[in-house]
User: Which sequence fits this backbone?
């Protein structure tokens, strides 16, 4: 029987298949209204939202509801305003003060107190990024504008972003500073767009993000998911840049490798300085562990430091977590700090960085580089043998190494149907049985992904 539970089950399935930003924009406020016969009625808050979900998602929603029900169901969308609670900055009345770090001249500044320049350990793998961040904090708006920092997960780009904020506020307390994860920027924009009082909401959104001296946006690769957010950041970038403000951005890849990023944004991201942070070498890993131990007021023997530095090689965050885990384990079990204790504490973790599946965009970039086929061609409708073959290799790697769903792979590769992805993966599997060169190509791509290059 069709019911509220049917809709909730369908929503769960949609949350897996629909990109996170789109789900938040168009389905978070969707509500079950009624059901009868083989029809379910779902309410969305605005006419604009109804047009979007009807045009883009009606078939997908109908399939999800039908699967949850166990039979064919038709879905009808209606408009019934029931807006979700807006972000605090859009609240009709001033929000209650929150216990966050603030400074004069700023609003909504949330910086991690641990992420300062003093606590950032410098080595050959991050020296350029650190020096650039330090210069920007000393002369915001005058050098390296924008500063674009990129690296893999847990290598320090967010640490440097927060360190810039702390240093600027320490020397210039009246700086109007805005730090925001890109996902928050996107969600704030989508909320402003999808509400009925769109003009007022958008005006306040622009004021929030453009009337600043320093804008810091973390994880800008998230922009690739929506065109509207790219448009908004483009105009925000221009307004701040032309007013002499400083912009600092971070990502998990350089601008040229962010899939579906508009050329005009890419060119602006690259006009200042693009600096990367590489995985720390052995000496730097040792220095990081010694500093962490000193900050914790604990002496860690060199052989334990060497064991951990050799065990965790790719990720600073996991390296620090491994030491923390070892210290807690030793204390709980009354053991001395020695390599065998660390080995017991980390038992079952394996080499965490090596075991984590690579991101789809990283696979796409690595495949594109290896075969020297532009990413834009792989995302396009081109069907010549070479482009199609390389595209199928990307599908295969995303399915087997990235462990993505077929619909998600199809979405990443230019909005292709999941049956196309399934066919592409099967074709690569057949070729692997016959073509040694293809095996070598795929292993080379995997090696690059494991190396983070």
Assistant:
């Amino acid at each position: 029987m069709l019911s509220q539970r049917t809709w909730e089950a369908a929503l769960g399935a949609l949350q897996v298949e629909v990109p996170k930003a789109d789900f938040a924009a168009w389905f978070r406020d969707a509500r079950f209204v009624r059901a009868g016969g083989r029809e379910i009625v779902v309410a969305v808050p605005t006419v604009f939202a109804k047009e979007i979900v009807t045009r883009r998602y009606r078939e997908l929603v109908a399939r999800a509801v039908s699967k949850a029900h166990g039979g064919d169901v038709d879905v009808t969308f209606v408009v019934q305003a029931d807006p979700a609670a807006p972000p605090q900055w859009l609240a009709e009345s001033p929000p209650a003060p929150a216990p966050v770090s603030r400074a004069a001249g700023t609003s909504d500044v949330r910086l991690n107190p641990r992420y300062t320049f003093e606590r950032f350990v410098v080595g050959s793998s991050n020296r350029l990024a650190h020096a650039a961040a330090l210069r920007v904090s000393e002369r915001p708006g005058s050098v390296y504008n924008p500063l674009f920092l990129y690296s893999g997960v847990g290598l320090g780009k967010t640490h440097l972003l927060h360190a810039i904020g702390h240093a600027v506020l320490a020397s210039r307390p009246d700086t109007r500073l805005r730090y925001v994860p890109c996902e928050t920027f996107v969600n704030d924009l989508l909320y402003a767009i999808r509400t009925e009082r769109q003009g007022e909401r958008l005006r306040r959104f622009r004021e929030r993000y453009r009337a600043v001296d320093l804008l810091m946006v973390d994880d800008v690769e998230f922009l690739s998911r929506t065109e509207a957010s790219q448009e908004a950041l483009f105009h925000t970038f221009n307004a701040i840049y032309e007013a002499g403000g400083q912009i600092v951005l971070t990502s998990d890849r350089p601008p040229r490798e962010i899939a579906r990023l508009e050329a005009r944004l890419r060119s602006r991201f690259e006009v200042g300085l693009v600096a990367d942070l590489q995985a720390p070498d052995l000496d730097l890993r040792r220095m990081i562990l010694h500093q962490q131990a000193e900050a914790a007021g604990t002496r860690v023997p060199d052989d334990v430091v060497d064991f951990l530095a050799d065990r965790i090689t790719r990720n600073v965050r996991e390296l620090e977590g491994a030491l923390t885990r070892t210290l807690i384990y030793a204390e709980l079990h009354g053991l001395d700090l020695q390599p065998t204790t660390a080995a017991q504490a980390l038992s079952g973790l394996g080499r965490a960085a090596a075991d984590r599946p690579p991101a789809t965009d990283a696979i796409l970039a690595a495949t594109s580089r290896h075969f020297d086929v532009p990413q834009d061609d792989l995302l396009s409708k081109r069907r010549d043998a070479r482009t199609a073959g390389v595209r199928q290799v990307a599908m295969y790697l995303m399915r087997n190494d990235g462990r993505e769903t077929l619909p998600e792979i199809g979405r990443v590769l230019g909005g292709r149907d999941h049956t196309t992805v399934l066919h592409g993966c099967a074709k690569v599997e057949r070729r692997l049985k016959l073509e040694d060169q293809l095996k070598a190509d795929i292993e080379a791509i995997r090696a690059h992904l494991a190396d983070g290059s």
Q: What stands out?
A: The chain is about 55% helix and 10% strand. The chain has four domains: 4-79, 106-277, 282-348, 360-451. Residues 327 and 337 are 8 Å apart (CA to CA).
